[in-house]
Design a protein that fits this description.
Blueprint (H helix, E strand, L loop, with lengths): L5 E5 L4 H17 L4 E7 H8 L6 E5 L13 H22 L4 E4 L4 H8 L5 E5 L12 E3 L8 H5 L1 H6 L14 H13 L8 E5 L11 H13 L3 E4 L6 H9 L6 E2 L6 H10 L2 E5 L2 H9 L3 E4 L5 H4 L12 E3 L18 H4 L3 H17 L6
Parallel strand pairs: 1-2, 1-4, 2-3, 4-5, 5-6, 7-8, 7-10, 8-9, 10-11, 11-12
């Protein structure tokens, strides 16, 4: 039994992967309400976890990415120095109150080191983990060939713990202050509670995932002309790109990127009628929050990382792809033509979006 046990989740990034881990934390807390759940996470995502009452302690860390295109020439040295400092800090915190069980869902050498910062305890990780991560684990979670989606892989930890997930585990928790901030933002933009609202996310980490700016402009203008409000979300770093889209539009866009925090953006997605965007973290937030998703896919696999729908769920999402191409799912981060995204027309996305809005309108699901 895990009641009264201290359980540490190691999943520092990325945003989508963190979202895919939340149902596991919810299931553990539901089945073992007296357990204490901690989570090691990158500082930039910590606020999302702090709003979730299933998570008892959040340990924010700051280790720079070495794979980010903006990482720079000293990325490896900076990451090493930050890792050593982080291990020292965590070891000091865990020495007084160590954890009984560590769940390493990140599956990297660094996450294995993070687990070692806890004195003692049992450690579990994926058997397919790379970078020597399996050497850090006491128990290995085997992934059946039939398990494809990243969400389902994470839920294999439930089997290891002897528990099952329930529909109530698949939810997104947002704070009262964040929801209030979203209402104030919407009022400042003269957006009423009754108007259909689409959260659009045009940015992603991979350049090959981007949809042409002129397509976003045409889609947004058409939606606006038909009485549907579009809000462009994202991080402060996305504002320049979103401004370039705005310059191509005939109507006045609403840009929330940089004006809302991550938890506030999650609350806005939660309250939206529909999400339209790329394969990115906000897409997974929308899926977990129960917001219908229209996702534009090209170089990545929808079956592996698409918006997740629990078997038997009534939630519906739509994937839009240029199915006629034979280069889909190439997983390349650079491409000279990016045909897989360019060939998705604004007209097709508009038809898909309005059709899905109608489906959920008929089922009684409007703005939350």
């Amino acid at each position: 039994m895990l009641n009264n046990k201290r359980i540490l989740i190691i999943k520092p990034s990325s945003l989508g992967d963190i979202v895919h881990t939340l149902p596991l934390a919810h299931a553990v807390k539901r089945c073992f309400p007296k357990s204490f759940i901690g989570w090691i996470v990158q500082q930039s995502f910590a606020s999302l976890l702090q709003a979730d009452n299933s998570i008892d302690a959040v340990y924010p860390i700051r280790i720079p990415s070495t794979s980010d295109p903006q990482a720079g020439r000293c990325a490896w040295f900076n990451a090493l120095r930050a890792t050593l400092n982080t291990l020292h800090s965590l070891r000091r915190q865990f020495r007084q109150q160590p954890y009984d069980l560590l769940l390493d869902l990140h599956a990297s050498f660094r996450s294995g080191l993070l687990g070692r910062s806890n004195p003692g305890g049992q450690r579990a990780g994926f058997s397919t983990a790379k970078e020597l991560n399996t050497l850090f684990q006491n128990h290995l979670i085997h992934i059946p060939e039939t398990t494809v989606h990243a969400q389902e892989k994470n839920l294999l930890f439930c089997d290891y713990l002897g528990i099952r997930t329930a529909d109530k585990d698949f939810h997104l928790r947002t704070g009262t202050k964040d929801r209030r901030a979203v209402r104030q933002f919407l009022l400042s933009q003269d957006i009423t509670e009754t108007s259909p609202l689409i959260y659009a996310n045009p940015a992603a980490r991979w350049q090959t995932k981007f949809w042409p700016k002129e397509h976003w402009a045409a889609l947004s203008d058409t939606l606006h002309e038909n009485g549907i409000t579009v809000i462009f979300g994202g991080s402060p770093h996305d504002r320049k790109y979103l401004a370039a889209i705005a310059q191509l539009m005939q109507t006045e866009p609403i840009i929330a990127a940089g004006d809302l925090t991550l938890p506030q953006s999650a609350a806005l997605i939660q309250q939206s009628s529909l999400y339209i965007g790329l394969d990115s973290g906000p897409m997974h937030i929308a899926a977990l929050a129960g917001t219908p998703v229209v996702a534009l896919f090209g170089p990545t696999h929808p079956s592996r990382v698409g918006p997740y729908t629990r078997p038997g769920s009534r939630r519906q999402h739509r994937i839009v792809r240029a199915e006629e191409l034979d280069c889909l799912e190439c997983r390349k981060r650079s491409c000279p033509h990016r045909s897989c995204m360019r060939k998705i027309s604004p007209e097709r996305v508009y038809e898909t979006a309005t059709s899905l809005l109608q489906v959920h309108r008929n089922s009684g699901r409007e703005r939350k």
